[in-house]
Design goal:
Blueprint (H helix, E strand, L loop, with lengths): L15 H18 L12 E6 L5 H12 L3 E4 L14 H8 L5 E6 L4 H8 L4 E6 L5 H14 L6 E5 L6 H10 L5 E5 L8 H9 L4 E4 L11 E4 L10 H10 L4 H4 L7 E3 L20 H19 L5
Parallel strand pairs: 1-2, 1-3, 3-4, 5-6, 5-8, 6-7, 8-9
């Protein structure tokens, strides 16, 4: 299985065998990601991070992955201090930066930006989120989290929150379809999963259930994946507050759940999860955030030909 020089743009580009291989390599590299073992797997590697949107976990986990493996990072920094502020196009930025680095991690507000960038780049482009489109490395770390903390094959999962605009939820649904998951989509009517994605899933014989009421699904699921409801999508703040309150994960809600239910969240959270859940066995979101390091380390090592 050869990943060398592969652009990482969309989960639709991955087969189950490819995903399984990445997750297996991530498990092998997890001690390196934790700092328990030393590695020079990225010796003489320079990774460029081009982030046109704010990021904490994605950016820093890529940095951690490269540095833990003995490589270095070239960071764009603030947009105001770059040539983008002078009107430089994304295509020109990519053609310049490819001369400085061995791979480029790109986050951009416009859907399709990563695929366009790949057309101009001679080094691998890794999509770190493109608008409301895809976020494949987040999905890979989500799958790794489910594999490590619950069960991946046939998992019963509820994905809750903003499913209309949430690129994390979009990518995750496509990936879970490869594992025969039972997918419960929980959202307000105005933020339901796009019909195209629901139809794609059902076309693959995936059981998909849609509701706006968390209590309808909480008793039967293995994993509850919460996402942030974006306040800016609501012209009326009162309507936002009603929706946010209805989907909040509380101790009372989890009293109805399986004892080994895992709660995940891509972070940052606002008020989707009551803080009292943080110290329970249900809470998995901080582990999930760490798992981004071995997963991105595995992906980079494969793309750069350091591992097969």
């Amino acid at each position: 299985m050869n990943f060398t020089n592969m652009d990482i743009i969309s989960m639709k580009d991955f087969s189950r065998d490819m995903i399984d291989h990445i997750l297996n390599v991530a498990e092998e590299l997890e001690p390196v990601a934790r700092g328990e073992k030393r590695s020079n797997i990225f010796s003489n590697v320079l990774l460029s991070l081009l982030f046109f949107e704010p990021s904490t976990r994605t950016r820093m986990s890529f940095e951690s992955a490269i540095i833990r493996g003995g490589g270095n990072v070239l960071n764009l920094g603030s947009l105001e201090a770059s040539s983008i502020s002078k009107g430089e196009t994304l295509a020109d930025t990519i053609r310049v930066v490819e001369g400085y680095a061995d791979a480029i991690v790109l986050r951009h507000p416009k859907e399709g930006a990563a695929r366009m960038a790949a057309e101009y780049s001679s080094v691998p482009i890794i999509n770190a989120g493109d608008g409301a489109g895809q976020h494949p490395t987040q999905t890979l770390l989500d799958l790794y989290t489910i594999k490590r903390e619950s069960v991946l094959d046939g998992v019963k999962i509820a994905i809750a929150g903003d499913l209309k605009y949430g690129r994390t939820a979009h990518s995750l649904c496509y990936a879970l379809s490869l594992y025969g998951a039972e997918i419960n989509l929980v959202s307000p009517d105005s933020l339901q999963m796009p019909e195209e994605i629901v139809n794609d899933l059902r076309g693959q014989n995936i059981n998909v259930y849609q509701t706006s009421v968390m209590e309808e699904v909480i008793e039967d699921i293995d994993v509850l994946y919460a996402t942030r409801i974006q306040k800016e999508r609501f012209p009326d703040v009162t309507e936002y507050e009603k929706v946010a309150a209805s989907l909040k994960i509380t101790p009372g809600l989890l009293d109805k759940a399986k004892i080994d239910l895992k709660v995940m969240h891509p972070l940052p959270r606002v008020n989707e999860i009551d803080a009292s859940i943080d110290n329970t066995n249900h809470a998995c979101y901080f582990k999930q955030s760490f798992y981004g390091v071995p997963v991105r380390m595995a992906l980079l090592s494969l793309v750069m030909g350091r591992l097969k």
